[in-house]
Amino acid sequence: MKSSNEIVTRLQQSADPVRAEHSQGFFKTGPGEYGEGDLFLGIRVPLIRKLVRVSGDLELSVVEELLYSKWHEVRLFALLSMVQAFRKGSEKEKDNIYNLYMSNTHRINGWDLVDTTAPHIAGAYLWDGHRQPLYDFAVSDSLWKRRIAILSTQHFIRKDSFEDTFKISEILLTDKEDLIHKAVGWMLREVGKRNSKEEENFLRSHYTEMPRTMLRYAIEKFEPELRKKYLKGTV
Predict the structure, then answer these.
(1) Average pLDDT for residues 24-28, to the nearest whole number?
(2) What's residue 1's pLDDT?
(3) First to last CA, the chain
């Protein structure tokens, strides 16, 4: 299963129309919604991951063809293939995968597509390098680039490095999109799992200006009394 046509055919064989209809609603594909116009086959993610594993290494040209599919799950397959290849790739191969990823963010147009890949490709690649691309993405007009910016820092968080998460969170404090509020709050919560003091230091400086959803996500694991104080603005 090495050509894009073979892969698409295999995925289509696993399509579930009922699940596809549910996904259309769940991923907000209606007019004016963030996933407007996206199309689903209705395939469970574990099955897609299994197909990625058994497909092995794919040529990047094949991956790029899959990224341009109209089907959401085909794009997810392509992106998970990139993650798999990146983990075991040479430095040159990682360069090529990262460049393909960053130059095709308009095809990474779903929160699940971002969340399952950004830390493992953009975050992992930039860990040892210049991180300006994430700051450029953080001020982009693209919702998906902004989500990639903050989700990529999950890789840094796992290595106990929080500075970029805090800086990008500050940039996104006034973002208008609920998907960004959730993403920032989630990453701040991830910081707290590693170092609660660092998260609280950030929150005490910024919680009064945070969108409510962002704050709720950030303090989800706090003790009930402390969580109430943050929500009441009495910390």
Answers:
(1) 92
(2) 55
(3) 57
